[in-house]
UniProtKB/TrEMBL annotation:
This is FCD domain-containing protein. PANTHER family: HTH-TYPE TRANSCRIPTIONAL REPRESSOR GLAR, TRANSCRIPTIONAL REGULATOR, GNTR FAMILY. InterPro entries: GntR_C, TF_FadR/GntR_C, Tscrpt_reg_HTH_GntR, WH-like_DNA-bd_sf, WH_DNA-bd_sf. It comes from the Bacteria.
Length: 237
């Protein structure tokens, strides 16, 4: 029997609440700058004060939300400076990983990357309004496959420390997910990404480390430019 506050799979209530709030933050359920009131959050997630406080403290530590003294927490507003900083780090870290992975590539790695790409394509979101619940679930599935695809590439570098660093910065970039699909339709995002991912797989197979690094940099900075333009429009609104 699971302990009180722990699900049968070992997940604690605080962990469940943390994951739920984090997903909602990435999906844009809470507007940037919105206050996160304890009472409203307890009702939304069906939890008590202690696990909620633990989840919020963890999210604050990851800079996803910010504390307001003794008044609770507020959703952080993404800034263009943060976007530039995060994506420059992604280009640096992920570029090193793909370069190493391509240099030491083997048939098993190439096969895994190809399988992850197939999963990503299979979860291509249909055209729909981004507020539609079913569409959001589909988009969430695509995001999971997207992450799995990229991490499969970077694992090929054979560096657990590098992979850990990449995952941490990747998580920070997820704060801009909502901005990305407000800037353009999710279907358009995933359609464009599909072409770029297919090219990535090709250069991985070709075995040219520096070419792979350059293609990946273009892929990442293309996303950053779209989001930056959207944030600039919001700043001028």
């Amino acid at each position: 029997m699971a302990r009180q506050g722990t699900a049968a799979d070992g997940t604690t209530t605080a962990e469940r609440i943390y994951c739920a709030i984090k997903r909602d933050l990435f999906d844009g359920v809470f507007e940037p700058g919105a206050r996160l009131g304890n009472k409203a959050l307890q009702e939304r997630y069906g939890c008590g004060v202690s696990p909620l406080r633990e989840a919020l403290s963890r999210l604050s530590g990851q800079s996803l939300i910010e504390a307001e003294g003794h008044r609770g927490f507020r959703v952080r507003r993404p800034t263009r400076a943060e976007l530039a900083d995060i994506y420059s780090l992604r280009v640096l870290l992920e570029g090193e990983a793909i370069s190493r992975a391509v240099a030491r590539r083997g048939p098993d790695w190439c096969e895994e990357v190809a399988l992850r790409l197939a999963g990503l394509i299979a979860n291509q979101p249909p055209e729909a309004d981004v507020t539609d619940h079913a569409y959001r679930l589909h988009a969430d599935a695509w995001e999971e496959c997207h992450r799995a695809f990229h991490m499969a590439i970077y694992r090929g570098a054979g560096s657990p420390s590098l992979l850990t660093s990449i995952e941490a910065v990747y998580d920070q970039s997820e704060r801009f997910r909502h901005a990305r699909w407000r800037a353009t339709s999710y279907s358009a995002v995933s359609q464009s990404a599909r072409q770029e991912h297919e090219i990535l797989v090709e250069v991985c197979r070709d075995g040219a480390p520096e070419t792979a690094r350059e293609v990946l940099a273009d892929h990442l900075m293309g996303t950053a430019k779209v989001v930056d333009a959207w944030l600039a429009r919001q700043d001028g609104a």
